[in-house]
Amino acid sequence: EEEEDDDGEEPEKEKEKEKEGKGKEKEKEKDKKPHHIPLPQKNVLDPSLLGPCAKDAYALLQDLCALTAGDMPSFLKLQSISATFGLELLEILLSANSYLFIEVPIFRQVLPDRICPLLLRCFLQVAQDFSFGVRLLRVINVFLLRYGVSMITEVEVLLMRLSKLLESEHPEWLHVVAVEVLRGIFGDKKLISCVYENCDAKGSSSTSIFKDLVHGLTSYVRVAFQLDWTAVSLEEVMNSKFRCMDRLNTAQAPLLKDAYRIYAGVACVLALAHSLHDLIRGLPSNADKFKLYAAIAMDSSPVMLTCMSAVLDHSDEEIIYQQVMKAIENAVYSFGTLKLHVQRDSYLSLLCKHAMPSPPVESALTTKNTHAIKAVLNIAHCMGNILDTSWGVTLRTVEQLHILFATGSAASAAAAAASATTAADAPATAADAAVAAAEKAAEEESNDVVIITHAINALWQSTQHLDTSSLIHLLHALVNLSTQTLKSLNAVEGTEASMATTNFALLKLFETLHVNLLRIGDLWETAAAHVVDVSRHKNSGMRSFVVRSLLNLVMACLAADRAEIRPQEVSDVPRTKLMDQMQVPFLDVIQAMTRSPFSDTHTATLESLYKIIQSAGQVLSQGWQLILDILSTEAKENDRFIPTAFTSIHLISTDFLPALPREYLGMYISAVGFYGVQTVEVNISLTSGEILWNIADFLAQQTAAAAELQEEQQQEQPFAGSDVTMAPEFRDLWLGFFFELKKLVNDERADVRTTVLSTLFKALGTHGAVLPLGVWDSCIWDIVFPLMQDVREVCTTGKHDQPEVAPKQTPKQSRDGGAKILVHHSRDSSQKQWDQTLVQTCEGVTRTLRGAFSRLRELPRFAEAWERLLGHLEEMAERRSAEVAQCAARELHSAMCKFAEEREAFPELWEKCWTVLESLTASYIKTKEFAPKYLPVADVVTNLGELYDTHEQQLQPDDIMRMMKLLREISLLEIEEFRDDNGLTSVQASMGRLLDVIAARAVASGRDSVVEYSVDTVSFLVLKAICLPFPLTEAEAAAAQPQPSASLVPFARRMAECCCGTTLPTASLTVRCACAPQLLAALGAAAALRHTHHASPLWAPALDAFVAAARVAVAAAAESRDTALLACVCNAFCHGAHAFLFPPHAAIPAAPFPLAQLNADESKDVVLVASFAGFALSVAEAGEETADLERELLAVVSEGCALCDTREALARACYSALFELCRVGTRVEPIATPIAVDMCRRVLTELAAAASHSKGQLVEAMVVLTELRTLKTRPDAFSPTTFDRDAVPLTTEDAAAHTHLLELYPVLCRCALVSERDVRELLVELLVAVGVYFLHSKPQQQ
Predict the structure, then answer these.
(1) How far apart are CA 110 and CA 1120, in angstroms?
(2) Of 88, 364, 1117, 1158, which has the most beta carbons under 10 Å away?
(3) Helix (H), strand (E) at residue 15
(4) 3-class DSSP state for residue 181?
(5) Could you give the 3-state DSSP secondary structure of residue 542?
(6) 26 pairs with which residues across the strands?
(7) For the CA atoms of the chain, what is the radius of gyration?
(8) pLDDT tens for residues 649-699?
(9) Cβ-based burial of 680 (10 A; exposed 0-12, middle 13-18, buried ≥19)
């Protein structure tokens, strides 16, 4: 009764869901919770607490699961039921009571506890019986579809078992039923999303359920699609609504047709495609599920693509491939939305492949082609925003279709005529039927062609709905297609009318730009470069079309601005005028098109520019700069097109001069000037002159208006001043106007330059009187000095041609109609004439400044004017011309002499003179020598000597040091000149005398800074003579690799000898202390040349100077009591001495100066080592904190002591110096004695330990024993290690003075076995001395 009431009162709601592409509807029954019977308590988990009905229902469900599994029930009074019947009951219960299993926890718990284990248990025998297997899979299907989302763990297990059913060892019917179940699963978008998210997306640790299912489906499709498609009717199977899993009335598996096996796989794949589309439809790109859905789509793509491609390749049934193409559209949408470009392109390429008819191309379109074309166009129309790079393959197909329709009409007519002829030959009745069929087919095809053609034409109009990014991708695709088309074209002449079939992409590119005119600012960059490329193509029709199309596009923008077109979407923000936005990009392309190598395109582009100016001249603003740049370039670079380009120049002058922005008027004046100097047509030059006068009239009007306004303002402010100033912009324009006249100075004819220079300098005085003082100042700065600069630059880059000679017979007319004339031999070349022009310009500017000196004094930039003149003199030094160089040096020398007297009034000009002189000197050094045999540095040295002699009292120390700095730089110049007996050139001899005079007078006058700089100059010369940097740091000195400079070595030697012999000893203590370290470093590095360049004449004098300078430096540092300075001097001396005495092995060349030859010069070593003792004593006298310095000096000596094997003389000298410092009474004794004792112990120990002795070892031992024999030390001079000082009674003076022998007594005893007679005699003598001094024994005669 409860069930009847339930059935009678419970409302049922049916939901119809159309399966896209399958043509059938499936009703799903959804149960509603009964209103009069409450559900069991949701919080009850104990069956005993349920109500009566609920308790019975729960018990019934438990027994049903037990009976189906073959177990005994506990509630029902039954022994058993068949498993198939139990499965059917379970299917009914799960289907009809989903609310119960979802809403009530105790019933929901039955699903994982009883039903799912039951299903897994039944899986073991699913393949044994068809009836059982079908019912089991039906229950699984219901379980998955209704409860799969909430039972993901159980679903994972069931789906894993289901994927195993698709393996090849199972029966065929089981494969089909499994695919039918899989179709339902793939058709549930929520289920597949949940499964993938909870299984596959978890990573390698989880089971890839979805991938396994797709893999199983792939295996099934691969096998099924190998069947014979020729006798297969998928449409018949689809209409029959047959399902293998619905065959419950038979115990045996039905015989499955090939068609159904194929259709089952196709239907499953289509369900997957539609579910994927439903998942992704409307999904934003930033959604949380975006990556998840992308992964699902990527895993689904291969089987979908394989299946759809096979269906389209093998099936000719319209309803089937319609569904497949619809699924492909969905796939394109899905993959495009998910940004899976490779997959999207694969499906789109599949459609495009079937959109074109099979070869031959003239064959008619099939129905499949038509549907594929419509699908492609539907994608292009509706999904353009997701195509991105796929626009390329899409538009390639559209282009092929367009060409096919454009060229295939004649073929279609021929085919129709052939069909009619064939039908006429047949019997009457058959002929009528054939004709009717042919006419019907032709009409259908014609209708399809019309529809497709209309869709293609409408495609470009629909691009206005695309977003900007997608539209740019579309334009890129059109550009690529057009580029490919251009590569296939040849130079055959074409017409613009054939563009529809010749270059469809280019045609549609401009059409798209026209449609999207309001967004052209964002799109033009994509098309601009291609437009330029087309303008340079070899096909004239293409070039003509692109020029005309660009002009039409510009005119369309202009028309849109005039009509004030507004976007479809009303916006409160006013739209920017298209021409304001696009005039520069358009003109950029036009400028590039003028560089086309084809004259017809070049001319057409200039004509288009003329039309643009004519139509849009009033609205052009920033575009004028490009226009004038284009026109100026034509005048400068393209003589062939000057007449065409000049029409635009003339048009601007006559119609648009008032519209030309003031900031571009100067450019226009320059452009007119370019056409004025051209030599193609004289009429253009004459007309340019008229245009310049038109500009002058326009400027006069504008200047007059500005002056009137200024006068009115001054009347309102009477105390503002009486001098009427000109507005800056008019001043610049006037100066620009004069500048065009000034350009004639650059004419290639010397007589024209001479005349123009004379006229110009006179005209300045005439016109300067009528201009305000500020404008006159501007003329000086903007005309006179730039003129000089221009002449200098033209002179620098002037033509070096052959001398001009007179014609023998009839004078050959030059370009301007004049005949060539004879010239003087000093001006018989273009170079000489330009040099004369430069000199004339320099003299003219100088005369102008001197002539207007009184008025120029009133200008605030008077001093700067002289500085500019001096700057030009500096620049003139760059010319390799003796005439120009002499002119610059002459003018500069006179200026320096003048400003030396007036340095207090014009200190900045005096400084500028020095700057120019330094620059001139640098330039002369760079040039070295001028033709013919003119040496400008000699004049510099001479001028410096004259300046010092005549103005010594006015010269400050800084001036003298700058003078010496110039002499330094000149000294580095390698001049191929005669040298005297000392190896000096005349320039070096002059510099030496001047430097000697400067140093001597500086010492006498007490100018320490000058003296110090003089000594530093010597250091500089020495370092440069050996190719080392100045100043030389300690690190650089350590890594130095000196290389003698043949040209500078004699001069450096001469200056070093003079400095160390005269200047340094007589200099003040401050100078000696300041200059000594760097001088020692330089001389030490030069002395080290002995080891690498023994033949150099510099190293020996450098060593002598090094010793002399060290003697002066150490004495000065010790006198100053400056420990830091003393340390610096000692370090420099020790480093130089060490580098001289002990070169690194790598620095000693194997040839031609081996070590044996170097030993021949050890007398120099002995002299150097001999100075150590004196230096050490001087250092010790300087203070109490010099112990480290003393040790540093002794370290060098100690290192030389160990070289007896190779350098005996050096070692003897080192031992002598060391023991000299150990004598009683010296302040170095406490430091030197321990060192000497340790060294003796080492030598004697090695002597005693050696089985055989080398000559060097014996010599060293004898030297040591000899020095020990005479050495006397204080008792506390060292710390004994072999005896206790307190235990040894020092009763005599000899014992106290010879404690070192007692310290060495053990090692002396060990040496007693040495067989060398001389050594034994010395040992005996020392041992006897020990006995006498400490044991009080008397020596016995041997």
Answers:
(1) 108
(2) 1117
(3) strand 13-19
(4) helix
(5) helix
(6) 17
(7) 55
(8) 999 999 988 888 888 998 998 998 888 778 787 677 767 777 776 886 788
(9) middle
